[in-house]
From TrEMBL:
Species name: Polychaeton citri CBS 116435
Domain annotation Reticulon: ranges: 56-253
Name the UniProt record assigns to this protein: Reticulon-like protein
Composition bias type Polar residues, residue spans: 1-11, 27-45, 284-296
Record's compositionally biased regions (Basic and acidic residues): 16-26, 308-320
Keyword Iron listed: no
Highest taxon of source: Eukaryota
Length: 320
């Protein structure tokens, strides 16, 4: 009777539903593990990304909701356990208890039976980690470390300005929260934001994208308005500069003309000489005829200087 009851329960709808959910969860974890491939996208410098970029994107975008939910619950549980359970103390207690028991049994068995229990259970060859396993593990560690190294540089050099702004906001909030919040609280808050932030965006993508597009449009309109105002002020300043330059040139021309007339009236220069002097107006230009031509050959030494040098040499006494 009991076997029939157990068989009916195992073949019932509840058990079938549990097996279906277990198979679905197993498949999602398999899909998450299979997503660890190098993506086709590259950085702004042309470098390939790591396979952890694909895995974390698949994890945090809730493509496999059961796997993501279980990982989220696991991380949150680990944070609370590390906060309220003295794991290190329990681990040390278990270590010394086990080693003490092994040592006591070994000494007692050798004393009573002449051979130790642990010695008889010792394998013929100690277990070692294969070289291939170590190389694969080191390669995986390298990819994991480079994931953070690449992402930090992409944020610092503003490859995606929105990611840089988000990192700035997170660091600013953390700077103030760290004064009043313990480390485990910050870790819990960061985990919640990291997992639930993408989920909230996915569930409200149209609404959030609409607000972001409106914000971008407002910023673009304001930028265009500022550019128009700057261009208008620049044109006004340029026109004012041109008008001032023209006014100063006209005044300078009038002053030069007045000075020439005064020089002619007082007899300092003749009228013909004064007319040859340009007025220096705004339209006047300097031409090459206004300057004397430069000499093309070196000047020849004066004859008198040469004769004086010859005479001086003749008067100098010869050395014996």
């Amino acid at each position: 009777m009991s076997s029939q009851t157990a068989q009916s329960i195992s073949s019932g709808p509840v058990a079938e539903k549990a097996r279906t959910e277990a198979d679905t969860t197993k498949n999602e974890f398999s899909n998450l593990a299979a997503s660890r491939t190098t993506p086709d996208a590259q950085t702004a410098t042309g470098q390939n990304l790591t396979h952890y970029h694909s895995m974390f994107y698949s994890l945090l975008s809730w493509e496999n909701p059961r796997a993501t939910g279980i990982s989220f619950a696991t991380v949150v549980t680990a944070i609370f356990v590390s906060r309220y359970v003295p794991i290190a103390r329990y681990a040390l207690k278990a270590t010394w208890t086990a080693l003490g028991a092994i040592a006591a049994v070994e000494v007692g068995s050798k004393t009573v039976m002449g051979s130790g229990v642990a010695s008889r259970m010792r394998p013929k060859k100690y277990y070692t980690i294969p070289r291939e396993t170590l190389e694969n593990a080191l390669e995986d560690v390298e990819q994991f470390i480079n994931f953070f190294v690449i992402e930090i540089q992409r944020v610092v050099f503003a490859e995606n300005v929105w990611a840089t702004i988000a990192a700035f906001a997170a660091s600013l909030v953390t700077y103030f929260l760290i004064k009043v919040t313990p480390a485990w609280g910050l870790a819990l808050l960061g985990t919640v934001v990291l997992y639930l932030g993408p989920l909230i965006y996915i569930k409200n993508r149209e609404l959030i994208d609409g607000h972001l597009n409106n914000a971008n449009q407002i910023v673009s309109d304001q930028t265009q308005q500022l550019r128009s105002l700057a261009a208008q002020h620049s044109n006004k300043a340029l026109d004012a500069t041109k008008n001032a330059a023209g006014s100063y040139a006209t005044k300078a021309q009038e002053m030069v003309g007045h000075a020439k007339r005064q020089a002619v009236d007082k007899g300092y220069v003749s009228k013909e000489t004064a007319e040859k002097v340009p007025s220096g107006g705004a339209g006047s230009s300097v031409q090459s005829e206004s300057f004397p031509s430069a000499p093309q050959t070196e000047p020849a030494p004066a004859v008198a200087d040469t004769a004086a040098e010859i005479k001086k040499e003749a008067e100098e006494p010869l050395l014996a």
